[in-house]
Write a structure and sequence with these properties.
7-stranded parallel β-sheet; 30% helix
């Protein structure tokens, strides 16, 4: 039984100074405490020896302003176009490495460094070319430069929007071919048209500002964007279906995640207003390119302007690129002199700060954690992330996640239970499914604050042995609507609760319903009328569709009343399979949740 509860509101300190790379000050050898017993701590050394200047290897071209910042602090070796073998040879003499997208920083690079490499800086946003797992294993901090490109990408989006509407690229090619086809290239006006901004982050917000200045009516879809920020610039947040159904122009600015991959496909194109025009300066994979060609041919999509593609460069015979109704550019969103200089400064500041023992807010991987701490906390770390993932997937579109409460139940004294890693993993679960940001112990608090998410923590102190770190973790999201109404608890919040059983994370509560399902694979939640044969009906449908069931649990209010069935599945069922489950008369609602 709970003896008492300690409530704590977590507030993230505001950086004391502003620059292209806001920094959170730490001691020269910054430390991260993850005690399992009082006084045990972890120290991760990022600063170089105080006796000599560190060496920074710049493996791809960097703007002069960034190089100057680096040279003021370190010895800088600018060696471009290195082969993998040459990079591995050089790296053992370097404390930091700066790359763009053309250099692959593989596990072999980290192994070849002999432990000397402390920081890898990616001059840009994406870090697909850096082996993050290897970096973390070797105690190497990875930082990127995500903000300096914002205005450049937004300007390019507007440039494509306007040039597409007025057929600039096609008319230019025509007149250079000796033709004069004024009537063929009659365009459309932007004034009074509705622009749907899909993804209301930094770039999406800047595109919206500029489109408003052009006299466009701007709506946006981003289920996790603060509504007050949108209202402040005259933008209305709407659902995904409403956005694509009412827009004359659609501008894409979402990250490429499993949830957004091929988000624009045959099904979504069919819901759009005929004659819609589409701009993409985000990621190529968010559009099913074959489906876009079909939509163009069918007249559903009047035109498309694309700066990004699923495979870059696209094939020479790409039907999409060669389509007369498509304006294409070779990933130029960040390609302005100003943006390149800004990126150089931002990444140089982050790398120098890390070598000084400061921590850049753009860090994308976590420091190493002692094996004994990880051994004890690992199942709870997994539980925390999965509860976050479940909770955010239960939020209905259009509801912004602003207030999250986390409750830890433990027999340990507060000083013997450091929850920072658990809080970071809950934040990771809440944000990563809908963002391109990598969340970890390093950047979790900053990332939550940046997105306007206020996290409060409550500790319920239990009687009993403190041998186990935690009895349960509960995550609640307040002031939102839910895709699964039964996930709303009696107090009005989306509520999920979990425990670790035999080393395996389990979901033990959804809303006010007690369940027990292993958090492996994915989960189907069904609210149903409690009656005989329901488990058999659902199980039979999944079996017929070759979907393997790992766990099944039913929690109910009372016999023959409402119940919630939680089903763990190894594979993602087809939409048709889920529809069959939903068509069972006794099933009142259901939702599929990916872990």
């Amino acid at each position: 039984m709970a003896a008492n509860a300690i409530s704590q509101t977590f507030r993230i300190p505001t950086p004391t100074s502003l620059s292209l790379s806001s920094k959170l000050p730490l001691s020269p050898a910054f430390s991260v405490s993850l005690p399992t017993h009082r006084r045990r701590s972890l120290v991760v050394y990022v600063s170089s020896s105080l006796d000599a200047k560190p060496t920074v290897l710049v493996a791809e071209k960097l703007g002069e302003a960034g190089l100057k910042l680096l040279k003021d602090f370190a010895n800088v070796d600018c060696s471009y176009n290195l082969s993998p073998e040459e990079l591995c040879t050089k790296i053992s003499l370097c404390d930091a490495l700066i790359v763009r997208s053309g250099t692959k920083v593989s596990r072999e690079v980290f192994e070849s460094s002999g432990g000397r490499l402390k920081v890898v800086g990616r001059a840009g946003v994406g870090i697909d070319n850096v082996d993050l797992a290897a970096a973390t294993e070797h105690g190497c901090l990875v930082v990127n430069a995500p903000t300096a490109n914002t205005v450049a990408a937004a300007e390019h989006g507007i440039a494509l929007l306007a040039s597409m509407a007025r057929n600039v690229a096609q008319a230019d090619a025509s007149i250079k071919a000796g033709k004069w086809l004024r009537s063929k290239y009659v365009g459309v006006s932007l004034v009074g048209k509705t622009l749907a901004v899909m993804g209301f982050g930094k770039v999406g917000t800047e595109v919206a500002r500029r489109a408003k200045g052009l006299g466009m009516n701007v709506i946006a879809h981003d289920p996790y964007a603060p509504a007050d920020r949108a209202r402040a610039i005259g933008v209305e947040l709407v659902s995904f279906d409403e956005a694509i159904a009412t827009a004359d122009f659609i501008s894409l600015h979402m990250p490429l995640t499993p949830a957004t991959s091929k988000m624009l496909n045959d099904e979504t194109f069919a819901k759009m207003k005929k004659g819609v025009r589409i701009v993409n300066v985000a990621r190529g994979g968010v559009i099913d390119e074959d489906a876009l060609v079909r939509a163009l041919d069918a007249g559903i999509v009047a035109q498309a302007a694309l700066d990004v593609f699923t495979v870059e460069p696209p094939a020479e015979d790409s039907k999409l690129v060669k389509h007369e109704l498509v304006t294409a550019t070779p990933h130029l969103g960040a390609s302005t002199k100003e943006a390149q200089e800004g990126v150089a400064i931002e990444i140089a500041e982050a790398v120098v700060g890390a070598l000084k023992g400061e921590l850049a807010s753009t860090a994308v991987n976590a420091p190493m954690v002692p094996s004994e701490v990880l051994t004890e906390l690992k199942p709870f770390v997994d539980l925390a992330e999965k509860l976050g993932r479940l909770a955010v997937q239960l939020v209905a579109g259009g509801s912004g996640v602003k207030t999250v409460k986390v409750t830890y139940a433990s027999a340990r004294a507060p000083d013997d239970l450091d929850t920072r890693l658990l809080r970071a993993m809950i934040t990771k679960g809440l944000i990563e499914p809908i963002s391109s940001v990598f969340v970890n112990l390093v950047n979790a608090d900053f990332t939550a604050k940046q997105r306007g998410i206020r996290i409060t923590e409550e500790r319920v102190i239990l009687d009993g042995s403190p041998e186990n770190p935690l009895e349960f973790i509960q995550v609640q999201i307040a002031n939102v609507e839910s895709r699964f109404a039964s996930a709303i608890s009696d107090s009005g919040e989306i509520t999920v609760e979990g425990r670790v059983k035999d080393g395996v994370p389990h979901l033990t509560k959804v809303g006010s319903f007690e369940v027990d399902v292993s958090l492996e694979g994915s989960i189907i939640l069904c609210r149903q009328v409690d009656q005989p044969g329901m488990i058999g009906k659902v199980g039979s449908i999944l079996g017929e569709e070759n979907v393997n069931v790992s766990f099944m649990s039913v929690g109910r209010i009372a016999p023959r009343k409402q119940a919630v069935m939680a089903i763990g599945v190894d594979d993602q069922p087809r939409k048709e399979t889920l529809k069959r489950i939903g068509d069972i008369p006794a099933v009142e609602e259901f939702v599929f949740l990916k872990l």
